[in-house]
C-alpha cells in the first residue's frame, strides 16, 4: 500500500475517533440535553451522537479543518474545553501525541493493525462513558470550545489556504496551562506499532 494512502487512511480513522469522542463528551457531560442525541454503535460499543445540525456542522468543520494538520504532522494538541456561563474553563479534555507515522503501518499490508486499534478505541470509549461518575457536575448553561494547538508557523499558511475560508480560525491568546487546577486522566491510548 502506498505511504500517502496509508497516511490518509490513518488520518480518516483518527478523525472519526475524534468525532465520536467529541459527541460522547458533550453527551456524557450534559453540555446539551440528552434529547438531541441518538444511540449508535461505534467500535462495537454504544455511543451517543448528536442529531442537532448546527452542532454537527461545527464539529465536522473543525475536524475537516484539522485534517491538513494531521496529514502534515503539524497538529500538536486537540482540546475540548467546557466553559461555564462566564466562559471560564471548568473542564478540558485533551488529545495529543498523535504523530501519524506511516513507517509503523507499512509493515501491515493486510491492515491487521486495525483490530488492536479498534480495541483501543473501544476501551477508550468505555472508559469515557464512565467518566461522569468520577467528575463533578458541570454548571448549568455550560458551553464548549474546541482548541487546536499547532506549530506556530501554520497560521500564515491557513490564511492563504482556501480550504479555511468557509470555516476560519483565529489565533487565541496564550491560555494558561494552570487555568484548570485538577487533571483526571481517563486513559492513555497506545496504538500498535
Automatic annotation (TrEMBL):
Residues 8-193 form the HORMA domain. InterPro entries: HORMA_dom (IPR003511), HORMA_dom_sf (IPR036570), Mad2-like (IPR045091). It comes from the Eukaryota. Pfam families: HORMA (PF02301). GO terms for cellular component: zeta DNA polymerase complex. This is HORMA domain-containing protein. It comes from Homalodisca liturata.
Amino acid at each position: 500500500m502506498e505511504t500517502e494512502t496509508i497516511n490518509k487512511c490513518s488520518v480518516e480513522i483518527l478523525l472519526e475517533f475524534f468525532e465520536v469522542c467529541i459527541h460522547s463528551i458533550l453527551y456524557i457531560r450534559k453540555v446539551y440535553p440528552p434529547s438531541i442525541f441518538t444511540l449508535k454503535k461505534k467500535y462495537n460499543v454504544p455511543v451517543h451522537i448528536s442529531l442537532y445540525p448546527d452542532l454537527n456542522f461545527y464539529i465536522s468543520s473543525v475536524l475537516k479543518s484539522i485534517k491538513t494538520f494531521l496529514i502534515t504532522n503539524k497538529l500538536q494538541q486537540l482540546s475540548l474545553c467546557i466553559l461555564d456561563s462566564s466562559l471560564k474553563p471548568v473542564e478540558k479534555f485533551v488529545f495529543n501525541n498523535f504523530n501519524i507515522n506511516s513507517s509503523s503501518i507499512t509493515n501491515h499490508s493486510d491492515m491487521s493493525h486495525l483490530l488492536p486499534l479498534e480495541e483501543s478505541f473501544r476501551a477508550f470509549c468505555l472508559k469515557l462513558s464512565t467518566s461522569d461518575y468520577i467528575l463533578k457536575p458541570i454548571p448549568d448553561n455550560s458551553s464548549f470550545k474546541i482548541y487546536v494547538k499547532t506549530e506556530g508557523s501554520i497560521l500564515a499558511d491557513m490564511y492563504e489556504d482556501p480550504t479555511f475560508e468557509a470555516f476560519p480560525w483565529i489565533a487565541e491568546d496564550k491560555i494558561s496551562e494552570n487555568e484548570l487546577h485538577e487533571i483526571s486522566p481517563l486513559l492513555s491510548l497506545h496504538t500498535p506499532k
